[in-house]
Design a protein that fits this description.
Layout lengths: L6 E6 L5 H12 L2 E2 L3 E2 L14 E2 L2 H9 L3 E7 L2 E6 H9 L4 E4 L2 H10 L4 E6 L3 H10 L5 H15 L7 E4 L3 H16 L6 H14 L1
Parallel strand pairs: 1-7, 1-8, 2-7, 3-4, 8-9
Antiparallel strand pairs: 3-6, 5-6
Bound molecules: guanosine-5'-monophosphate.
The site of guanosine-5'-monophosphate has 13 residues, from strand 5, strand 6 and helix 4.
């Protein structure tokens, strides 16, 4: 089969639980996870180099100028981007890499890496998303309304994605995402070289 790793993009509404899904995919199935660079300030408990590479705006611009990011986007008031070296090294070593990024970055990946697999994680409806956002307790009503408006915008970008997975039961969602990825890796188009080799081997037998 294709010896290169699979690039996987996972996006979803804030509150749909994609962070938990991604964490579990890494823990249970050993996916490689890209750590993004950001100009956002660390939240309590976040660790530099583990959750993000926290950068000043000047450092971030420097990364862009030196082609150090495979994609970047502005989200709310901050910049976020995916460091190039880690992703390319991991793919070359045959490891499947997850990028947990927002919709504009996903669109760039689609163009730069046509083989990438794009998955969108959602709640089953808007009411559930609102309930989850309010349930966090950390956000004001105005902040919840802002996130819902943002989700409405993002919902228009779902057409760019290959797969949509509902996060209703967490365990089912994790297993479904893993199965979808495994299924995608078996697609014939992705394994052209392997198939050619197999057919050539048979020709030698004939
Ligand atoms: P947060 O500030 O809540 O950690 O992340 C805000 C948004 O930025 C989330 O939707 C997250 O998926 C997205 N994000 C995180 N890293 C990257 C990145 O490297 N590139 C892009 N385009 N989005 C990112």
């Amino acid at each position: 089969m294709n010896k290169k790793g699979q690039l996987i993009v996972i996006s979803g509404f804030s509150g749909a639980g994609k962070g938990t899904v991604v964490k579990q995919l890494v823990e249970r199935y050993g996916y490689s996870l890209s750590v993004s660079a950001t100009t956002r300030a660390p939240r309590p408990g976040e660790v530099d180099g583990k959750d993000y590479y926290f950068k000043t705006e000047a450092e971030f611009r420097n990364l862009i100028d030196y082609n150090g990011l495979i994609e970047w986007a502005q989200y709310v008031d901050n910049f976020y981007g995916t460091p190039r070296k880690f992703v390319e090294d991991e793919l070359a070593a045959g490891r499947d890499v997850i990028l947990e990024i927002e919709v504009q970055g996903a669109a760039i990946i689609r163009k730069q890496y046509p083989d990438a697999m794009l998955l969108f994680i959602t709640t089953k409806d808007v009411a559930t998303l609102r309930e989850r956002l309010m349930g966090r307790g950390s956000e004001t009503e105005e902040q919840v309304a802002k996130r819902i408006r943002r989700a409405a915008e993002e919902s228009r970008m779902i057409n760019n994605y290959d797969y949509i997975v509902i996060n209703d039961d967490l365990d089912t969602c994790i297993q479904t995402v893993h199965s979808v990825i495994m299924g995608g890796k078996c697609k014939r188009e992705r394994n052209a070289e392997f198939i050619e080799q197999l057919q050539a081997d048979f020709r030698d037998e004939a």
